[in-house]
Amino acid sequence: xxxxxxxxxxxxxxxxxxxxxxxxxxxxxxxxxxxxxxxxxxxxxxxxxxxxxxxxxxxxxxxxxxxxxxxxxxxxxxxxxxxxxxxxxxxxxxxxxxxxxxxxxxxxxxxxxxxxxxxxxxxxxxxxxxxxxxxxxxxxxxxxxxxxxxxxxxxxxxxxxxxxxxxxxxxxxxxxxxxxxxxxxxxxxxxxxxxxxxxxxxxxxxxxxxxxxxxxxxxxxxxxxxxxxxxxxxxxxxxxxxxxxxxxxxxxxxxxxxxxxxxxxxxxxxxxxxxxxxxxxxxxxxxxxxxxxxxxxxxxxxxxxxxxxxxx
Length: 312
Hints:
By secondary structure, this protein is an alpha/beta fold. It has two domains: 6-205, Spore Coat Polysaccharide Biosynthesis Protein SpsA, Chain A, CATH 3.90.550; 209-311, no CATH class. Helix content is 45%, strand content 22%. Strands 1, 2, 3, 4, 5, 6, 7, 10 and 11 form a nine-stranded mixed β-sheet that branches. A two-stranded antiparallel sheet has the order 8-9. A hairpin with a 5-residue loop joins strand 6 (112-122) and strand 7 (128-132). Helix 7 packs antiparallel against helix 8 (238-254) and helix 8 packs antiparallel against helix 12. The longest helix is centred in the last third of the chain and has 19 residues, at 216-234.
């Protein structure tokens, strides 16, 4: 552990991405704000990640290695090794803008436990896709405005520990599930959530089928975990709950679990307060009753990408 406390710890978790990692680290080292450290958590890589990190001549960068256990466990390891009063998580293929930490510092002010910023998505050729900014997250998230992707939020150590960190058994939707625990806690304790209403990081979008989190079985398990563990909160926002049921239903259908898919689409249709959404899920239910048709419909990469982006 470092010898001094810093304002921010940036945790970058990586697994066999030695080629991508230096760009992420360098983007943090180019910050206009100087009171930070970088903790790189190597989640059991077999490439030359260690030598790449240790070759960086900056004492603010530290290397931590652990046996491979997945992203949530790696993030919790990085938080445990950190000395910052606030913790930020950055993916190894994303890039922070130079005013990223400066923006968080201003948004936190003197009373906020969390600050969120916007993000810019680009494709594999660096072409602009879209910006996403902090927004009203609705009653399931205690009525706060925010955005919870890797790199878009800073959280105080006290709030992070009180919320319990990331759920290590979860294999996808990590930030969403964490926010469902974090934000009601902030509301109960009177902690504010500040925002930077413009992009401050660049996220490299991946084609949906290539993302591990969008593998049907993983997506289904992640969304069901969120529903099962946070149903009472989600019921405060029927639109959101119906969306989660529908997403889990598509993932179940893509996995060949058509009975489960029918059950989930039925719940989505009953839960959705908007008639058009009810009908859309009723149609999905009918499609799931005909497995040959369902396999054809939900084999589409475009449908999978849209569905995954819709609720997770």
